What we know:
Blueprint: H1 3-37, H2 46-73, H3 94-115, H4 117-120, H5 122-129, H6 132-146, H7 153-173, H8 181-186, H9 192-199
The protein binds protoporphyrin IX containing FE (HEM).
Amino acid sequence: MTSRSVDAALWYLGRGSGVVSLALLTLVVGLGIVTRSGRTLPGLPRFAVSAVHRSASLLAVTFLVVHIVTLTLDPQSQLRWLDAVIPFGSHFKPLWIGLGALSLDLMIALTVTSLLRQRIGRRVWRTIHWAAYALWPFAMLHSIGSGTDARRMWMVWFMVACAVAVIGILGWRVSPDFLDDRDRVAGTKLPAPRALEMTRGGR
Length: 203
Ligand code: HEM
């Protein structure tokens, strides 16, 4: 294989893994919101929704690693390893690559805190997990601004589909009937049987 074909392979792999990462991040945001709602999905009980959410985020991290390694090794992009984690320092499209680096930093924070959830406690974990809502738009802006394919029709439709999915599920997230009834009861912070009594009209 010539060095030119290796460079081309790195570039294609870098772009392809970026697209897959964005698709997986979209899925992860959606599944995270469904997990929070306490609801099931067709064919998936509650525990499975949360398990698929976790597995999809680990898969997204794997594709992100491929994306970053291949594009950093690709001489065309002129990226240094530090550009992947320190935002806005890259010589190549500093703003757009910087947004990608910010998303990566947030992804690392979310992954590490989720793996350490038992140790750090639910409250700290949950506060940090709110960052997921910033991660997705940063990743989307990065994809629009730095991608070679951003103006191709298939990519435009792909990004529109991801945006519609996230905006739709966010609309549901802020709606009054978002929580499953059991979680609404849990949200009263009373022990479940006592809270149930109260919602049924007991004292
Ligand atoms: C959550 C984090 C990230 C996601 C979801 C993501 C996703 C994407 C997507 C979808 C593209 C467009 C690919 C195409 O046009 O076919 C792209 C391009 C690119 N990304 Fe990322 N990316 C992320 C983080 C990063 C980081 C940290 C770096 C820095 C090393 C980086 C470097 C690049 C470069 C150089 C391009 C342009 C590739 C080209 O078209 O020539 N990305 N990214």
